[in-house]
Design goal:
Layout: H1 2-31, H2 61-66, H3 70-77, H4 117-120, H5 128-136, H6 138-141, H7 155-166, H8 179-182, H9 189-192, H10 197-203, H11 242-245, H12 253-261, H13 263-266, H14 280-292
Helix pairs in contact: 3-7, 5-7, 10-14, 12-14
């Protein structure tokens, strides 16, 4: 009996040693040359950013807003239309009507909509910062919100949606772009684009239906543009929109580039109907031409 017990105990101990050895061996195999976490996480962990997310090189939301695309924002907003309306006087649904929401107090008004206690407790207004945080993660912004939408992970898409919402009866002035983001690094795309004034004059013919370019020329639908470079935005006697008046600053290269790229995104509520110039080289050409129009 004693020999049999010793035999069983011996085999049990041997099995344990083998299992421990295999566990250690497999651990070393799967960990070999993997001193850092995987390049792509197997599944998302709430609160843990993927490598490269939110880094120092991330484009500030203010810069994305300056070049936001209203048409893309309207297209993205279709994701929200199962719960929200955005037309003036539209009825509340599962979520509140969003016409004129930018700049309003959070969880207030909206035809008496029953906001969650979590959102009521946030206070403040729907400014650019709070709306960006809300659209990034509603539950992260107000834990306990009734909003079931997970959020928009792409900052550019959030900027487009905010610009679109802002165009619906709000027209808040766009936030100032941080200096570091406004000044492209040496060798960057913007620094490499050199304008051609002659080509810019040709492109500017698209603008001649509304603007004159000769010194002392009369204003038309839009102002005379002679000598505008370096002057204050919305300066002079022309009846500029309140949206453009609220921008401040001067017409330098960066400001002109943002304006020419998308006037409505630059100053939501502007009276300018021109959609903009998508090509960076063509914008640089027009700016070079405007510098010669004095």
């Amino acid at each position: 009996m004693s020999d049999r017990f010793n035999t069983i105990a011996g085999w049990t101990l041997f099995s344990g040693v083998v299992a421990l050895g295999l566990s250690s061996l497999s651990g070393h195999y799967f960990r070999a040359d993997k001193h850092n976490r995987p390049e792509k996480m197997g599944f998302a962990i709430e609160g843990v950013a993927e490598e490269g997310e939110g880094g120092a090189a991330a484009t500030p939301i203010e810069a994305l807003l300056a070049s936001a695309d209203l048409a893309k924002g309207e297209a993205s907003f279709k994701k929200c239309m199962a719960c929200h309306t955005a037309n003036q006087g539209g009825a509340n649904g599962i979520g509140p009507n969003l016409y004129g929401v930018m700049g309003e107090a959070a969880a207030a008004g909206r035809g008496g909509f029953a906001f969650s206690d979590a959102l009521k407790a946030k206070g403040g207004k729907w400014d650019w910062t709070s709306m960006n945080a809300w659209l990034t993660s509603p539950k992260g912004f107000a834990n306990g919100t009734k909003m079931s939408f997970a959020g928009l992970s792409d900052p550019a898409e959030r900027a487009n949606v905010m610009a679109y919402l802002n165009s619906l009866g709000s027209n808040l002035p766009l936030p100032a772009v941080p200096a570091a983001a406004a000044a492209p690094a040496a060798g960057g795309e913007a620094a490499a684009v050199v304008g051609d004034a002659a080509k810019g004059e040709q492109s500017a013919k698209k603008c001649a239906a509304c603007h004159t370019f000769n010194a002392g020329g009369a204003a038309g639908i839009g102002p005379n543009l002679a000598g505008m470079v370096g002057k204050g935005v919305a300066a002079g006697s022309f009846a500029y929109s309140d949206a453009l008046k609220g921008k401040g600053g001067t017409w330098d290269d960066a400001t002109l580039d943002a304006w020419l790229k998308n006037p409505k995104a630059f100053a939501a509520g502007t009276k300018m109907t021109f959609a903009g110039i998508s090509d960076a080289q063509e914008r640089a050409n027009v700016i070079a031409y405007l510098k010669t129009a004095k």
